[in-house]
Design goal:
Strand content: over 45%
Shape: elongated
Structural class: alpha+beta
Distance between the termini: 77 Å
Number of domains: 3
Radius of gyration: 34 Å
Number of strands: 22
CATH architecture of the largest domain: Beta Barrel
CATH superfamily of the largest domain: Autotransporter beta-domain
Number of helices: 4
Order of helices and strands: HEEEEEEEEEEHEEEEEEEHHEEEEE
């Protein structure tokens, strides 16, 4: 009896152990393999914009760069959209180290196709979730956010031996959809020293990007700029080209661009301050000339002045009032556009970014323009952040031999919406 009971107990123990193993295997759900050798078990929630969402019991929801993923195994059916727009539904598996897609045929057999994780554009529970963006009225009905943006505002005041005022304002609107992104920007700056204006600039620009493939995009852009502080009365610029997202991850991104630009420029003869100085000098000289002319006519009573004397006096008076006329120079240029955009997340929520654009002139070899914006953002709340930025502009041909470099350091508050 004792032996039989022990045997029965062993059978029950083995059966219970096998049951636990089977349950553990069934409970592991989806499996994620990383390039660093890690293996995670949990639930694959989805993937988009280069980031995969994976939930585990021990670590909760994880967001992982798709570039770090080596392979996926799913317990159930999911939908995958590959670059180019192809959508497949089925189970993900690994066969001889290769990522494969398992789909059922009409005769209940299983069809297997091989692909790479680098080809994945998005993953969702079903194919409907991977369809193209909703129409505007459908998006409004479902509450989908159509636009996002940010407002930057900064001001600096100083009083004492020298009174200064500096103000900067920036407004950005972004509409991002599955295949394209539209970005609209408006920036402005104002500065005065002892009530004399030395900076008054405004720039508006728009850029559209379309992704025919996962990382490759075409773009077009246009911009209008007015900066009389640098003698630039007006610059209209438009162009387009190709770009590629070499790094597209949750915490880091790098995109490089190449294209062609056309620009029509109107340059002033004077800057704001030099124009006011020239007008003041001209008025003083005209008044001095008018006083000298009147003094020279003092022996002749006004009633005996000739018509020519009156015209001369009026001409000197008009010169004193008008001062100096601003003249402009026009120029047309074609540029080769080379650009790069880099962003990096620091300290979990802060962001470091650099936008660099080099524009060599094709119409005048050896001349070029350069624009750089280096920025650091750190959050203060969900929608408010503090932003530091350094903008550098260089133009090798301003026509007057001015200081070609312009550096602007801005500290501002950013409100995101």
């Amino acid at each position: 009896m004792r032996h039989g009971s022990l045997h029965e107990q062993n059978v029950r123990s083995v059966g219970a152990g096998l049951f636990v193993v089977l349950m553990a295997w069934a409970a592991q759900g989806d499996v994620l393999y990383l390039h660093n050798g890690d293996r995670l078990s949990g639930v694959l929630e989805g993937a988009c914009d280069g980031t995969l969402t994976f939930t585990t019991e021990y670590a909760g929801e994880l967001r992982i760069d798709l570039d770090s993923v080596q392979a996926l195994v799913t317990d159930g059916t999911i939908a995958v959209r590959l670059e180019g727009g192809e959508i497949q539904e089925g189970r993900l598996a690994v066969d001889n180290g290769a990522q494969v897609f398992l789909t059922e045929n009409g005769d209940s057999s299983v069809r297997q196709s091989t692909f790479s994780i680098s080809q994945v554009d998005a993953i969702a529970p079903d194919a409907k979730s991977l369809s193209m963006p909703l129409a505007p009225e459908e998006a409004e009905a479902t509450g989908e956010k159509k636009w996002s943006g940010a407002l930057d505002a900064g001001i600096s005041l100083r009083s004492g031996y020298t009174d200064t005022l500096d103000g900067n304002l920036g407004l950005t609107f972004i509409r991002k959809r599955t295949r394209d992104t539209l970005t609209l920007e408006l920036t402005g700056g104002y500065s005065e020293v002892d009530s004399e204006v030395n900076t008054r600039r405004v720039k508006g620009s728009g850029k559209w990007q379309y992704y025919p493939r996962e990382r490759l995009y075409v773009f077009g852009h246009s911009a209008l700029e007015h900066d009389p502080g640098r003698r630039l009365e007006l610059r209209f610029e438009t162009g387009g080209g190709l770009g590629y997202d070499f790094i597209k991850a949750q915490r880091r991104a790098l995109a490089l661009e190449i294209g062609l630009d056309y620009a029509r420029e109107h340059w002033n003869e004077f800057t704001i301050k030099k124009l006011e100085d020239a007008k003041r000098d001209a008025r003083n000289a005209a008044r001095t000339g008018l006083r000298s002319y009147i003094a020279g006519q003092s022996t002749k009573p006004p009633a005996l002045w000739t018509f020519e004397d009156l015209l001369t006096a009026l001409r000197l008076t008009a010169a004193a009032l008008d001062g100096v006329e601003q003249e402009t120079r026009e120029a047309d240029h074609v540029y080769l556009r080379l650009g790069g955009n880099y962003t990096q997340t620091l300290f979990k929520q802060s962001n470091l970014s650099e936008k660099l654009t080099l524009l060599p002139k094709l119409t005048d070899v050896g001349e070029y323009r350069l624009a750089s914006e280096f920025a650091f953002d750190t959050p203060l709340s969900d929608q408010l952040s503090f932003r530091l930025s350094l903008k550098t502009e260089y133009d090798s041909d301003t026509g007057k031999g001015d200081d070609e470099f312009t550096n602007t350091f801005i500290s501002a508050l950013r409100y995101s919406f």
